[in-house]
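Sample entry (76 residues):
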Amino acid sequence: MPPPKAPVGVPGKFAVDSGAWVLVGLVPADADEDLHVLGALLIMGVGSVGLLLAARPGVPSSAERASRPTASAPPR
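Predicted structure, serialized as tokens:
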């Protein structure tokens, strides 16, 4: 059984969130507060969107996926 594919938009969210962490890390608040706040807002926004996408109805949780028997393992 192939591994499940990431939902649409996850790689993009990951890239934006990673870029925001780099921005916040490279531009401390005492050097340029505006860019630091922009990075923090991006991190908060992308994180909130990720939580909303993870809570969509019809998407199985990781616990539900882990409890499903696979083709190589006999059912419990």
